[in-house]
Design brief:
With about 375 residues, the chain is of the alpha/beta class. The protein is built from 15 helices and 8 strands. The protein binds 5,6-dihydroxy-NADP (NZQ) and zinc ion (ZN).
Length: about 375
Amino acid sequence: MKNFSFYSPTIIKFGKGSIEKLPKLVEGNYKKILLHYGGGSIKKNGIYDDAIDQLKKTGVEVFELGGVKPNPALSMVREGIKLVKEEEIDLILAVGGGSVIDSAKAIALGALTEADIWDFFLGKERVEKALPVGVVLTIPATGSEASMGSVITNEEKNLKLAVNHDLLRPVFAIMDPEYTMSLPRDQTFAGVMDILSHIFERYFTKTENVGLTDSLAEATMKTVISNAYKLLKNPDDYNARAEIMLAGTLAHNGLLGLGREDDWSSHQLGHQLSALYGATHGVTLGIIFPAWMKYVYRENLDIFNKFAVNVFGVSAAGNTKEHVALEGIRRFEEFLKKIGLPRSLKEAGLPTNEFERMADLATSMGSFGALMKIDKDDAVSIYKLAE
Ligand code: NZQ
Ligand code: ZN
């Protein structure tokens, strides 16, 4: 096991009606709040009204900035920073999914600096302070409600990059599984894939003697998969939604990666599909992950065998490690098919004649990955496998 430090400050209020905890979380702590949200789903499903009703019980002044798009744009972040600076806002309240939360985090970072916000994503500026961010989560997927990351798309440069720092972890997250009932089916399952992928990025590594996090990861994966099947049958299953929502946070608050290296190649490869073609994050991962797995599994046959046996119930008896590993990947692909995610770039309507361009962008900050270092040629090969 590797040395580590772990900081997870987010206060989580989980369950039915937890929006009622909002006044206590803000009153006395903040004076001016920016209510940040997306394209309008919260106005249709009533979450916007719930949040406003609760905020009215407090003395805080509320400003609004809606219109965050999936794969949140740098231009919106800049607009938010300007508003927050002008109005001296002291809390950004993100009501939405990962896109809204990440936009809120970038605004919170940009509000306290004169530096250009994109320079933080390019690694040219160091994070030293940020305004607090609170969250009302409406889709379990990214784990951004408790994570240290913000992922923003620079529309002019076709680049999607992340900045990571403990100061970007939200101060609180209100998580009501009932708020996720209005999700369209494709977003529900894209979210499921994203949650699994955050576990994969930590699980499929070479660190030895990490039995506890191996087991926690496997339990979380099995929970996500079994409850995804329940949601296929009944999208209104509260307990299945609750299990998936909790798993989404645990998958990416850092807990499952304690003491181990992490990989992130598949995220890096997927992000460029979102930056170039606007693809949904979870959809890109459902396409890239199986391709990446087939490309790298020989780097650690043992962990791919554990995955096959412990998560998908593959029998190891009488079979080679190679066979067991590949059978685990096959069963994972079968799961993806059942939950209706596109199985290839083609099936997702993404181009299959731009691998060089995709790989150039994906590796623009250098090679990446832990289980295997991925350079431009590897990136092209993985995109080809995902064709
Ligand atoms: O925009 P609105 O109208 O709100 O609609 C959204 C959006 O169209 C809709 N939606 C959300 N909650 C809903 C709902 N529709 C009906 N009912 C609800 N309850 O769903 C669509 C997708 O929302 P979005 O926020 O984009 O989804 P997600 O949470 O998957 O976020 C994706 C973004 O987060 C980044 C991704 O790269 C992507 O940009 N990630 C952030 C991470 C982090 N900060 O730690 C880690 C992740 O790996 C990921 O990279
Ligand atoms: Zn992700």
